[in-house]
C-alpha cells in the first residue's frame, strides 16, 4: 500500500496504520482488501483493491482527479466484487 501512497505523493505509513486503513470487500472464495487514498494537496485520489485467491494475486486501481474517482467509486467496487476467476 505504501507503493500506492507514493504514487499519490503521500508519505509512507507504518504497517499497523496501513492495515487499519484497509477495508474488506466481498469476493467469492478470496481474501480481498480495499483502500481509498487521497492527496488533498494535489487533488488526486486512488481506489485500490487486492484479491488473493488460489495462490495468485490480482490488483485493481482507479486513479485520477478526486471528483472523477469519487464518481466511479461504486462502479469500481462493484467491478472488483463481481470479477470471476477460473481457480
Write up this protein.
This protein is an alpha+beta fold. It has one domain (2-82). The chain is built from three helices and three strands, in the order H-H-E-E-E-H. The protein has helices at 2-7, 15-21, 66-82, and strands spanning 31-39, 44-53, 56-65. The protein has a three-stranded antiparallel sheet. Strand 2 (44-53) and strand 3 (56-65) form a beta hairpin. The mean pLDDT is 93.
Layout of helices and strands, plus pairs?
Layout (H helix, E strand, L loop, with lengths): L1 H6 L7 H7 L9 E9 L4 E10 L2 E10 H17 L5
Antiparallel strand pairs: 1-2, 2-3
**Mean pLDDT reading:** 93
Quote the beta fraction.
Answer: 25-35%
Helix fraction bin: 25-40%
What is the string of SSEs from the N terminus onward? HHEEEH
Based on secondary structure, the structural category is alpha+beta
Largest sheet: 3 strands, antiparallel
Give the CA-CA distance, first to last residue. Answer: 25 Å
Amino acid at each position: 500500500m505504501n507503493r500506492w501512497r507514493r504514487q499519490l505523493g503521500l508519505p509512507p505509513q507504518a504497517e499497523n496504520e496501513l492495515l487499519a486503513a484497509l477495508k474488506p470487500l466481498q469476493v467469492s472464495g478470496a481474501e480481498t482488501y480495499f483502500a481509498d487514498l487521497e492527496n488533498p494537496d494535489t487533488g488526486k485520489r486512488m481506489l485500490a483493491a487486492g484479491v488473493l485467491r488460489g495462490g495468485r494475486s490480482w490488483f485493481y486501481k482507479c486513479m485520477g482527479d478526486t471528483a472523477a474517482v469519487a464518481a466511479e467509486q461504486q462502479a469500481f467496487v462493484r467491478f472488483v466484487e463481481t470479477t470471476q476467476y477460473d481457480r
